What we know:
Blueprint: E1 3-11, E2 14-22, E3 62-65, E4 71-74, H1 76-80, E5 89-97, E6 106-114, H2 120-133, E7 135-143, E8 146-155, E9 158-164, H3 186-199, H4 210-223, H5 244-258, H6 293-301, H7 303-356
Parallel strand pairs: 1-5
Antiparallel strand pairs: 1-2, 2-6, 3-4, 5-7, 6-9, 7-8, 8-9
Amino acid sequence: MRSIWNGAISFGLVSIPIKLVNATENHSIHFRQIHLADGGRIRYRKVCELDEEEVQGGEIGKAYEDADGTMIPITDEDLAQLPLPTAKTIEIVAFVPADQIDPLQMDAAYYLSANGVPAAKPYTLLREALKRSNKVAVAKYALRGRERLGMLRVVDDVIAMHGLLWPDEIRAPEGVAPEGDVTVRDAELDLADALMDTLGEVDMDSLHDDYREAVEELIAAKASGETVRPAESGDAGGGKVIDLIAALENSVQAAKKSRGEEGAGAEGEGDGEMADVHPIKKTSGKSSPQPTKKSTAAAKKSPAAAKKSTPKSTGAKKSTSTTKKSTAKKTATKKQTSSSGGSGTKKTASSRKRTSA
């Protein structure tokens, strides 16, 4: 790997020649700006505001803009005269426990490589001392024209350095936390703990940038003239007020199911969707009218009363049967009356014929 800075680690009176190497790399896909009409690339030119002429790099200097807009020229010679003891030195100022470093301060990461054979012994000494102490070293160093703060720690068999922001560069989180008092129940915390336990740990090497891969596939498809199909966008559910307990329960089931664990629920459960819970109602074969509010309330208050009412319904069935029998008797009486009335009519008609004769 190519070094970006050469210097030495100052460890008390011990000086360790080192080379600074980038420990990370950016895999973001970069795009160029083009003219949509003809596809020509758009480039930026440095133009002076006063004469509106393009200026070459050798004619460009630096200046500080004052509050009133005045430009105060600053030359490289001016900066070189300033006292900067860490210009070529990583000066260790303290050794502290790692948990005293706020992760918010962490910036770029570098590897420190021993520069030459004579540097191997003191380099190894510092590395092993850091390992045994379980501490990290806080150091000052200068890079790209400014003094910086750093943290040295051991990664495998290499000393790594993390650039740190200065404490006054960290903003206070004012107005960021939710407003008002928010109460979290123990049941919700228990489910959150269960979800954390179910998700467990992850192999960091298995994580990858899905979006970058999608962009690469898009570029490859367009380059080969293929038709690009729009991807289906899932509903992220942002900003929705949800049932927290139901969401946590479904999340636990979904996590178990994705990991193939036992007790993940029946098939179709734990798919992340929330379902309404309704009480199961017993139904008979015959349709019955909907109960009124009063009868429902009475049934809820006194289940025993509902049981006592069951014999009454049996008696009602008997009375219904008796009513049917009496109705049948009345029908038979009507038929008899009707038949007797018919014979009386015939007799009257016969007597009328005799009288006329």
